[in-house]
Amino acid sequence: MKIATLGPEGTFSHEAVLKYSNDAEILFNGTIMGIFESVAGGKAKLGIVPIENSVAGTVGQTLDCLVKFGIKIRDEMILPIRHHLAGFGNANDIRNIRTLYVHPQTYEQCELFVKRFLPKAEIIETSSNGKSAEIVAKSKDKASASIIPKTATSIYGLRMIKKDVQDSRFNVTRFFAVGNSNNKKTGYDRTSIAVYPQIDKPGLLYNMLGEFAKRKINLTKIESRPSKGKLGDYIFYIDFQGHKSEKHVNESLKVIEGSFFVNVLGSYPRKY
Amino acid sequence: MKIATLGPEGTFSHEAVLKYSNDAEILFNGTIMGIFESVAGGKAKLGIVPIENSVAGTVGQTLDCLVKFGIKIRDEMILPIRHHLAGFGNANDIRNIRTLYVHPQTYEQCELFVKRFLPKAEIIETSSNGKSAEIVAKSKDKASASIIPKTATSIYGLRMIKKDVQDSRFNVTRFFAVGNSNNKKTGYDRTSIAVYPQIDKPGLLYNMLGEFAKRKINLTKIESRPSKGKLGDYIFYIDFQGHKSEKHVNESLKVIEGSFFVNVLGSYPRKY
To answer: Are A185 and A244 in contact (CB under 8 A)?
Structure first.
């Protein structure tokens, strides 16, 4: 099966695909929009895209593409994010590392580690975790290191100098597998919707949540994001437990459609 | 006044500081956490940090630091995000550009433009908009260009080849000015809070919003983010109109404290 994801090789998205399927033919793409285009155009059957990270928050580009392309969420998966210090040296050489290649978001997630263990290293920011690995691999220099995912260490032939250098033990990214068709009910599902108010009235959000509350539908995520119209206009992204074909879910959505434009992004088996 | 913000020179954060104050002494910092540390340690009086972009969404690192450092929001400001194609050529030379240096997030926001006008250019990703400008400036090459903020064109001596190359006309970033003290009421304020459920009970969020709705307090943003505990535990970030010293606001917060840990991140004059 052809699966499109974020490249280059050795990213966490690459790790997510390997976890999802061990015989996928992977199409690497530089942007999230490019992944959606591949799926919409039939070049790939599925796309695997990050939707939120417990430290960095929601990936807006993914939400926007879900709305724009009308492609459905078919699955969710949770990947623990573990960063590793990698290069050509070993654990005793940490103090000798003079240059650290690191993606800015990775640096943010390992900042306390770097300040404590590599206080004198020069930090050189890169455009991706795969790139950090590639630069160090080419340098063949013991005084250079990178902070990268495990997959990248083997792809680029680097040694793991120190494992698990992320500051927060709880660092996970949730990914979506997206495709062109809908899922059937499994009985243990989650549904994601995007809603946009048709009118401007105080208490609109409160009333909407009331429709879920009175049918005992559990919300698992809610987020307002500025819509592309004007500042102060918001789209709400909501996850809740249940499948859109279930009666109580369907009833809620019908009522909500009275005051919101409702876009069902998908119902899929839930993993937590 | 000393103001800390995200560096290097020529970033949108730099533009935000210049808009906020025209006689600030600017301390550039590589990370959002570093900015908060500068303010907490007294090295800077204020920090200016991005909180949300209309395309990319919320900046999670800023929310986390607000909670962690106990530093208060003193002001908000809205900066239109305008990207420009810049280098040494002019508008007639666009087709001759062979290499484009661009930050991945900037590329995402200008992807349609690049695909249409620079379909054959090699895209080289950089770690910041300032870096894109610096590389092209050093190259002195007419066949190289970058996509950067206006401030960066003058700092690095580049010519604006084509203005406003962002795909969405509506692209704004909201910034916070953060500092060590609270603001007085102006009568036209907004308050930001972070709340964390003390108990796990269905309808908790719905009941909380009811406290605001019944006192006619207008919510302007709500976002749930995974807390650092375990998956499924969420912190809610909420913006609403009003100052925390106002009676109806204070009453709501008191009731909510019965079932949530409430952290008031600041009350500040609202700009929209």
So the answer is: no
Q: Tell me the nearest-neighbour CA distance from A145 into chain B, angstroms.
A: 17
Q: Name the 3-class secondary structure at B68.
A: helix
3 state DSSP class of A154: helix
Nearest CB to A228: which of B54, B64, B127? B54
**In the 8-state DSSP scheme, what is residue B13?**
H
How many Cα atoms within 13 Å fall on the side-chain side of residue A271? 14
Question: Tens digits of per-residue pLDDT, A246-269?
Answer: 999 999 999 999 999 999 999 999
Tell the residue number behind the tokens 């106990």, with chain if given. Answer: B70
Residues from chain A contacting residue B31 (CB–CB below 8 Å)? 104, 107-108, 111
B33 touches A: beta carbon within 8 Å: yes
pTM of the predicted model as reported, rounded to 2 decimal places: 0.81
Domains, chain A, in order of start with CATH, read: 2-81+171-179 (3.40.190.10), 84-162 (3.40.190.10), 189-269 (3.30.70.260)
Residue type at A266? Answer: G
| Whether the Cβ atoms of residue B133 and residue B156 lie closer than 8 Å to each other | yes
| Record: contact A205-B220, CB cut-off 8 A | no
DSSP class per residue in B112-136? HHHHHH-TTSEEEE-S-HHHHHHHH
Q: What angle do CA B208, B213, B219 make, to 5 degrees?
A: 85
Contact A221 B216 (CB under 8 A): no
